[in-house]
Every structure is written in C-alpha cells, then in structure tokens.
TrEMBL record:
Gene3D superfamilies: 3.40.1370.10. InterPro entries: Ribosomal_uL4 (IPR002136), Ribosomal_uL4-like (IPR013005), Ribosomal_uL4_dom_sf (IPR023574). Pfam families: Ribosomal_L4. The gene is rplD. GO terms for cellular component: ribonucleoprotein complex; ribosome. Residues 45-77 are annotated as: Disordered. This is Large ribosomal subunit protein uL4. Keywords: Ribonucleoprotein, Ribosomal protein, RNA-binding, rRNA-binding. Part of the 50S ribosomal subunit.
Length: 209
C-alpha cells in the first residue's frame, strides 16, 4: 500500500511511502479497541471523590429521642444517614480507576485504529513539520493549506517539537503528539490523521516489536 507524501500546502512532493500491511491493513479487532479506549479514559480520572460517612460528620452524638414508645423507628444520633445533614451510606472513596492491559493487546488496538483510518481515507502523509517559533497563526495557515481548518486533526511528529506543540495548543480541534505517545483513543477521535514522513518508520518499528 502506497501513499503520496504531501507538502504543507497540500501539493504532492513526488515521493511515496509504502505502508506495512501488518499495521495499516489488518483485520480490525473492535474489542481490543474498546478495552484500550476504556483504559485510556479510566486513566484520566483523578479518583479523588469523597463523601463523609456518619463517623466523619460534625454533630452531636446525643440520642435524639427515647428508644421505645414513640411509635417510630429507633434513632441513635443526628448524624444518622436517614436524617438531613447526616452521613452518607456507602459513599464514594478515593481510589484509582486504572487497570492493566497486555502490551500486545494495545498494539492490536492501535493497528486496528490505523487500519480504520486508511479505510476511511482519513490518513495523509506529510513532509516533516517544524516551526522556527511558536505561533498559532502559523499552525492555522498550515491547516488551511491542507483544507483541515474545521476538522479534528491529529499530527504525529517523529520526535517532540516544542514550537509545533505550542503553536497548536490553543486550537480546540488540533492535537499534536510525538510518535511514541500515539494512543488508540486519539487516533479514533481525530477526523483526519496526519503522519509526518519520518514518523512512519518509527511507528512500524514500535508496533512490530
């Protein structure tokens, strides 16, 4: 499978990149994608939620009425969960939502996501991108040249580039990552995936280990 390498204005450079069928042409595994996306979203959760139970509520422990003879249920103190302002029964406690997935399963998920992008014609190969200084205007002009202004985009760089990252940071639909940080969720969340020419070989090395 071959794709033409594009300039930053959308024109072809005359070069082509051969994409590995083992990565960009596999049979997609939807369940692997589900698990990988679920793990990614779970890892974003802070897990700092907390509510007070009856032993943590500030209030009197005096018995509010006698045990028998009132015709109502027994009540020990005003901190009881059945009263307004009392503690909560089985409330949330701080915890981690993260869970483990095998490396090979995560590789299958990323290969499946890349295959879907190829099938949807949402993948383009670009010349390597670099800016002299961080300017949002430059990144907007870059997207305009590729007719991607109104789409959610993911640009995959062969290595970290602070100027490109900072130039895109204020744009809500633009995302820039290095090839080592590519994940299934962001691949599928983007309407258009832009791979730099230098990223393709590194990506294939990572996913064929």
């Amino acid at each position: 499978m071959e794709l033409a390498v594009l300039k930053h204005n959308g024109e072809e450079t005359g070069r082509k990149v051969t994409l590995s069928e083992e990565i960009f042409g596999v049979e997609p595994n939807d369940h692997a994608i589900y698990l990988d996306v679920k793990q990614f979203l779970a890892n974003q959760r802070q897990g700092t939620h907390k509510s007070k139970e009856r032993n943590e509520i500030a209030g009197s422990t005096k018995k509010i009425k006698k045990q028998k003879g009132t015709g109502g249920a027994r009540a020990g103190s005003i901190k009881s969960p059945v009263f307004r302002g009392g503690g909560r029964i089985f409330g949330p406690r701080p915890r981690s939502y993260s869970f483990k997935l095998n490396r090979k399963l995560k590789q299958v998920a990323r290969k499946s996501a890349l295959t879907y992008k190829v099938r949807e014609n949402s993948l383009m190969i670009l010349e390597n991108v670099s800016f002299d200084s961080p300017r949002t205007k430059d990144y907007i002009a870059f997207l305009n040249g590729l007719s991607l202004t109104d789409k959610k985009t993911l640009l995959v760089l062969p290595e970290d580039n602070k100027n490109v990252y900072l130039s895109s940071r204020n744009l809500p639909k633009a995302k820039v990552v290095s090839v080592n940080d590519v994940n299934t969720y962001e691949l599928l969340n983007a309407d258009s995936l832009m791979l730099c020419e230098g990223s393709v070989g590194i990506l294939e090395t990572l996913l064929l280990k």
